[in-house]
Design a protein that fits this description.
The complex is a heterodimer of chains A (about 160) and B (about 550). Chain A is α+β, with helices and mostly antiparallel strands and about 160 residues long. Chain A contains 4 helices and 9 strands. In chain A, the strands form 2 sheets. In chain A, strands 5, 6, 7, 8 and 9 form a 5-stranded antiparallel sheet that branches. In chain A, strands 2-3-1-4 form a 4-stranded antiparallel sheet, covered by helices on one side. Chain A starts with a strand and ends with a strand. Chain B has about 550 residues and is of the alpha/beta class. In chain B, helix 10 packs parallel to helix 13 and helix 15 (about 365-375) crosses helix 16. Chain B is about 35% helix and about 15% strand. The longest helix of chain B is centred in the N-terminal third of the chain and has 15 residues, at about 50-65. In chain B, the strands form 4 sheets. Chain B has a 6-stranded parallel sheet with strand order 3-2-4-5-7-6, with helices on both faces. A 6-stranded parallel sheet of chain B has the order 11-10-9-12-13-14, with helices on both faces. A 6-stranded parallel sheet of chain B has the order 16-15-17-18-20-19, sandwiched between helices. Classes of the chains: A alpha+beta (about 160), B alpha/beta (about 550). At the A-B interface, helix 1 and helix 2 of A face loops of B.
Chain lengths: ~160, ~550
């Protein structure tokens, strides 16, 4: 099962390596990771997405994360009300004749074109995973040349 | 007062109550050694950094205080690594201080540079790289606090040499408050009450105690619990000494080389009360067959230990001493254990711990029994790793905490001699024996020089069978006696000891064993006794790896 875990940590060098080490030592791949400062500049927030084949091992990892001295709070959003977003930048093949088609594809979606030039356009998509998947599907008709994703961030509803 | 970083370090260590540092000099710790030159601080110069780390570890295990070791950057620091990992696996409070290349050279592959905070990340409880001398005192304060509280462990502080030289105002932080580190000390009262109820309804309760009892200083409460419940108790290798071996409710050690009666008790118990133990694979044997009838109460300070290997019915996170104290109050009804104790005493009769003694040959177990008899069970015993360690665990009767000092989790050969050295410095009035094998002793034998130079009079008893005995035993039992690279060609240990300035005694006859031990204790020097013992003696009982605990090989018919 895919878990979205948020970890609040001391904003110090080396903390990311400690956290990554816990996952890598157990052969766990981090599917996505986003790190940033919070309102309190001494605290960083890490949102990570991991695929847990064995829930027991994930439970261990969460406990181990909590055990790290620099970790302040670990929250598993998976079973909690939360809002998740990810930013995607996609470079697609584009020429002036595609304008109508592209406008139609982006209309009423969470995406917009941030640059159009002859040869390519850069599309920004910001949304949840379903929205992003749908949009990427519809962009396929143009040909996606390059894709970067920010990694997911999440915030609890309460 | 303004001081340079090196003096701040020494001053801070004093404030932390440090009595002794074990270490080795080098290029990137010169300012620290300059400060040590006229500091009021005992420093023990070992002959290898690994020896310094193990000595700090042994000192800590014998005294309960934080052990401190010091090494230079690069190879000095990497030589500490085994010692740090050893302390980490056994939850020993230690502060390791390493020099580092100047802060502006870090990452440049400078001479003797190693990323030691990176290297030790997974074998320390926490580590620090000091990048601002103003942070040094605070860092040291935190390091000692983290090392010694909660589930203890080693903390490393890496100090670039320019940080040792720079000056700043020395301000000692009296308080330490780390928002992200708050160990839980008191158990959940509701959980303790549930445990008390479960205990009352049990018929075959068994207490299973580990090193956490010793760390927490909970041996008094543990004894009260055992006696209140009139329940048998078994312990792990790390738990040895947490309860008197000679007590009638004692079953000794459990697990791979535990007593048969302890292992049978585990398999038949309907309740296991685990205190400060972590259900290690050497303890549980085959996991899915472990304690099939037992509900489990698990008292541990480390939440990650709970339900890691064995599913726990009532977890209680906190300090063992506090929790046992509360539990003793909450237990109003105790189970009737008379039938259970009868079964136990039958196992004790049927499967006693035994070996086949011989007239004309020295049995290693016999040597340990004699050391036990002569020291009346009150010496501090350190061990190396392998057969020597298991025999020392089985055949010496430990009655006090902190008298058995052994590398449990990591199983580090070469631990015993430097650990004995550290223990002797911490407890100078105790007789300290390192029970060694002829293989292990050679992994840190250079520390004989440290012992002799500093008049640290430890006694080394080598159970010399000419083999890497434990590996040879596995080869005998599971690899058709194909003794692949386990036969050793050893030096003359007596001459070797003498060349270091220690006394050496060789014993080849059984009738000389006691005399040699008595003589070794009476000599005011480091003494090495080379006992030529039965070559192919095995440690029994033995639970083969991957077998259930009650599938022991007995060895003797």
């Amino acid at each position: 099962m895919r878990h979205t875990i948020s970890v609040l940590v001391e904003n110090k060098f080396g903390v990311l390596a400690r956290i990554a080490g816990l996952f890598s030592a157990r052969g766990y791949n981090i599917a996505s990771l986003a790190v940033s400062e919070t309102l309190d500049p001494t605290v960083s927030s890490m949102t990570m997405v991991v695929d847990a084949e064995d829930e027991k091992i994930l439970e261990q990892i969460k406990k181990q994360l909590n055990k790290l001295i620099d970790v302040i709070i670990v929250t598993d959003f998976t079973k909690k009300g939360h809002v998740e977003r990810e930013l995607v930048l996609a470079k697609i093949s584009y020429s002036a004749k595609d304008k109508t088609r592209l406008d139609a594809a982006l209309d009423n979606t969470c995406a917009k074109a941030v640059q159009r030039s002859s040869g390519s356009a850069i599309i920004e998509i910001m949304g949840d995973q379903d929205e992003i998947r749908e949009l990427l599907d519809s962009l396929k008709q143009f040909g996606v040349k390059e894709l970067v994703r920010s990694g997911r961030i999440a915030i609890s509803k309460d | 007062m303004k001081m340079n970083g090196a003096r701040i370090l020494i001053e801070s260590l004093k404030r932390e109550g440090v009595e002794v540092i074990f270490g080795y000099p080098g290029g990137q710790v010169l300012p620290i050694f300059d400060a040590l030159y006229d500091a009021d601080m005992k420093f023990i110069l070992t002959r290898h950094e690994q020896g310094a780390a193990h000595a700090a570890d042994g000192y800590s295990r014998a005294t309960g205080k934080v052990g401190v070791c010091l090494a230079t950057s690069g190879p000095g620091a990497t030589n500490l690594v085994t010692g740090i990992a050893n302390a980490y696996m056994d939850s020993i409070p230690m502060v390791a201080i390493t020099g580092q290349v100047k802060s502006f050279l870090i990452g440049n592959d400078a001479f003797q540079e190693a990323d030691i905070t990176g290297v030790t990340r997974s074998i320390t409880k926490h580590n620090y790289l000091v990048k601002d001398v103003k942070q040094l005192a605070q860092t040291i304060r935190e390091a000692f606090y983290i090392a010694s509280t909660g589930r203890p462990g080693p903390v490393l502080i890496d100090i670039p040499s320019d940080m040792q030289q720079q000056e700043t105002e020395f301000i000692w932080p009296e308080e330490v408050d780390i928002r992200s580190y708050k160990p839980v000390l008191f158990g959940h009262p509701g959980q303790i009450k549930r445990a008390a109820k479960l205990i009352a309804s049990s018929k075959n309760p068994l207490i299973y105690a580990g090193g956490g009892v010793i760390t927490s200083g909970a041996h008094y409460e543990l004894k009260k619990l055992v006696e209140k419940l009139n329940a048998p108790i078994t312990w792990t290798l790390m738990g040895i000494g947490c309860f008197p071996d000679t007590h009638k409710l004692s079953l000794g050690m459990l697990g791979m080389h535990g007593t048969a009666y302890a292992n049978h008790a585990v398999m038949e118990a309907d309740l296991i009360i685990a205190v400060g133990a972590r259900f290690d694979d050497r303890v549980t044997g085959r996991l899915d067959k472990f304690a099939p009838y037992a509900k489990i109460i698990h008292i541990d300070i480390d939440p990650t230990s709970i339900s890691k290997n064995v599913k726990v019915d009532i977890p209680i996170v906190g300090d063992a001493k506090n929790i046992l104290g509360q539990l003793l109050e909450d237990i109003t009804k105790v189970p009737d254990t008379s039938e259970w104790l009868k079964a136990i005493s039958q196992w004790k009769k049927k499967y006693p711990l035994k070996y086949q003694d011989k007239k004309d040959i020295i049995k290693p177990q016999y040597v340990i029994e004699q050391i036990d008899d002569i020291t009346k069970g009150s010496a501090i015993i350190t061990t190396e790793v392998g057969q020597n360690q298991m025999w020392a665990a089985q055949w010496y009767k430990y009655n006090y905490p902190r008298t058995f000092i052994s590398s449990g989790g990591l199983g580090t050969m070469g631990f015993g001699l430097p650990a004995a050295m550290g223990a002797k410095i911490g407890m100078p009035d105790k007789v300290v024996f390192d029970i060694a094998g002829d293989g292990s002793i050679q992994m840190n034998i250079q520390e004989l020089a440290t012992c002799v130079c500093n008049k640290i009079n430890v006694k080394v008893a080598i159970l010399n069978n000419g083999y890497l005995g434990m590996v040879r035993q596995w080869q005998e039992l599971f690899y058709k006696k194909r003794y692949s690279y386990t036969c050793l060609h050893n030096p003359d240990f007596v001459k070797l000891a003498e060349s270091y300035g220690a006394a050496g005694i060789r014993v080849t006859k059984k009738e000389d064993v006691r005399k040699a031990i008595e003589k070794a204790i009476s000599i005011d020097n480091t003494v090495l006794i080379d006992f030529k013992v039965e070559e192919e003696e095995n440690v029994f009982p033995m639970v083969p790896a991957g077998e259930a605990l009650n599938r022991m090989i007995e060895g003797l018919a």
